[in-house]
């Protein structure tokens, strides 16, 4: 009878899975989870990136200060979106901030490397202004490419109990 109970316990797969020693198991890493995590990351990155590029371009800043602002705002908005959700779960700010850093840092870094890399190598994209179709097209294409590269990274992290798997521990 005890063997059957152990077998039933071993088949249980919930978000807070633990084995008989109390160790947590990583959640199953599905492509759907990875896409959701990447879309979450992309939302924060896109808000910050577009805002930074619009501000820098509107003020006539050079490429370097505009890109630095866009990247800084991408991290700020990316972390803020995660922080908001974790704080809603009743977690104190310090813990929520640590969760946001653990959940989003690698994803945002990959996202920013890819989307800024595309803009850097796209001919004339760095010189495009807000009124140029090239500005918006190159930005949109850079986000698509960044999404495609970051999704497998997020799947890999979730499968190891890292990245957005950390955030899911705080959702009710």
Kindly describe this structure.
It is a single chain. The longest helix is centred in the middle third of the chain and has 29 residues, at 93-121. The radius of gyration is 20 Å and the shape is globular. Helix 2 packs antiparallel against helix 5 (133-159), helix 3 (63-88) runs antiparallel to helix 4 (93-121) and helix 4 (93-121) packs across helix 5. With 172 residues, it is mostly helical. The protein starts with a helix and ends with a helix. The chain contains 6 helices and no strands. The chain has helices spanning 2-11, 31-58, 63-88, 93-121, 133-159, 164-168. Residues 1-23 have low confidence and may be disordered.
Keyword list:
172 residues, mainly alpha, 6 helices, 73% helix
Main sheet: strands, sense, barrel: none
Structural class: mainly alpha
Helix content: over 70%
* Overall form: globular
State Rg.
20 Å
Give helix and strand order, one letter per element, not per position.
HHHHHH
Strand content: under 5%
Low-confidence stretches: 1-23
How would you summarize this macromolecular structure in one to three sentences?
This protein is mostly helical and about 170 residues long. The chain has helices spanning about 1-10, 30-60, 65-90, 95-120, 135-160, 165-170.
Strand and helix layout:
Layout: H1 2-11, H2 31-58, H3 63-88, H4 93-121, H5 133-159, H6 164-168
Helix pairs in contact: 2-3, 2-4, 2-5, 3-4, 4-5
């Amino acid at each position: 009878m005890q063997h059957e109970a152990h077998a039933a316990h071993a088949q249980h797969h919930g978000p807070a899975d633990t084995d008989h020693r109390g160790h947590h198991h990583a959640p199953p890493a599905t492509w759907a989870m990875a896409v959701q995590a990447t879309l979450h990351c992309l939302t924060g990155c896109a808000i910050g990136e577009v805002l930074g590029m619009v501000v820098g371009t509107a003020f006539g800043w050079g490429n370097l200060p505009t890109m630095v602002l866009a990247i800084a705002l991408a991290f700020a908005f990316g972390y803020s979106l995660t922080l908001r959700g974790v704080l809603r779960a009743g977690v104190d700010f310090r813990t929520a901030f640590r969760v946001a850093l653990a959940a989003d840092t690698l994803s945002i870094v990959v996202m920013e490397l890819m989307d800024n890399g595309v803009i850097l190598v796209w001919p004339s994209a760095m010189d495009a202004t807000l009124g140029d179709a090239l500005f918006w097209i190159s930005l949109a294409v850079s986000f698509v490419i960044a999404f495609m590269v970051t999704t497998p990274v997020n799947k890999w992290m979730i499968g190891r109990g890292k990245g957005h798997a950390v955030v899911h521990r705080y959702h009710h």
